[in-house]
């Protein structure tokens, strides 16, 4: 088990008051050790004393580059664990230790920056890159990836499949895996690591000529901080922006995506509204009419009422789709292109989130939890242009409860 031991060596009462996190109960048993430590300020002896701590103390800090995040620990331990000091923390008793890792290395610390070998410059002439991420504690149940910078080669323009550049996260025996490519700066995701010791990132970088850059923060999430199951992305805050992967100029959404974007319901908020980031920020091409004709509704389906036929039709029409939950089952009526205006559309595709002509386009829902389903297969038809498959950018805003 690997833990960053760090403790404030403060027993002067007035200082102690300003650092309320420290549990001073330990001094009762460890008076001798602590007083000798403070006396000679030998910080390197810290790990021995810390064996008596019931819970290791780990605190995040801000690096003095004004940008990165690190872990506050003593200078000695930062060096031993391969980190780099970026200024002081804990009233000068510790340093803000930033961990970076790159190709063919291991990630063995929380909050590690995985970067391309030439970062902050672009890397050229690469063909592959692999890094292993070791769980720092058995209790870690998820790994969070924050793509500060993520600019790799684009997927196949007509299918959305990552073919040349592939960023794959997988568990050791590949029971879970996830593939990305293209432009994903600013995105994040959670990867489930229950019942495995670690994961690996395998990057295939097929075209030597492509210039690439990435900086990915890898954070280890313990069980008690985990996000709800099934949420690849988890947003907090009463307002925010959500995008599908590879949402970029000249980009297109990726194929084979099947996940939920979840938004934490903030206190005193009862519903949520979604709006497009801009007029053209919703582009998910429906199947072509030809495809639709082959998806016949079964003969003798007279039992089905019209609504259900419509819904079956909509489901068939949207091969790639965004699913927004509806307020109530009664209003539930899947449809697109302005079918059933006034009803809640469960399934969305096409060139607008809202029924045609609805302006301003804003969808409200009080169905909880606030989840959005993203379901993209592989584009079958080659007639569709990448521009029709840009993906989705939405602004969400939570709406206070009315009492
Ligand atoms: C890793 O760091 C994050 C952010 O500071 C923290 O919330 C989390 O508890 C840490 N994980 C472990 C296993 O200590
Ligand atoms: C890339 O590789 C080619 C041939 O292997 C070499 O000529 C070129 O200088 C390399 N470019 C860089 C930027 O390293
Ligand atoms: C994209 O995929 C299609 C269908 O599999 C294939 O025919 C085409 O060659 C691919 N394009 C590129 C640039 O690889
Ligand atoms: C994958 O590996 C883990 C740990 O080695 C093991 O517990 C799990 O059963 C394996 N899963 C499969 C499907 O082999």
Automatic annotation (TrEMBL):
Entry-linked Gene3D superfamilies: Spermadhesin, CUB domain (2.60.120.290)
Domain of life: Eukaryota
Entries under InterPro entries matching the protein: CUB_dom, CUB_metazoa, Sperma_CUB_dom_sf
Domain CUB: 103-182
Span of the signal peptide: 1-18
Keyword annotations from UniProtKB, A to Z: Disulfide bond, Signal
Parts of the chain that traverse the membrane: none
Protein name per Swiss-Prot or TrEMBL: CUB domain-containing protein
Organism encoding this protein: Ceutorhynchus assimilis (cabbage seed weevil)
Lineage of producing organism: Eukaryota, Metazoa, Ecdysozoa, Arthropoda, Hexapoda
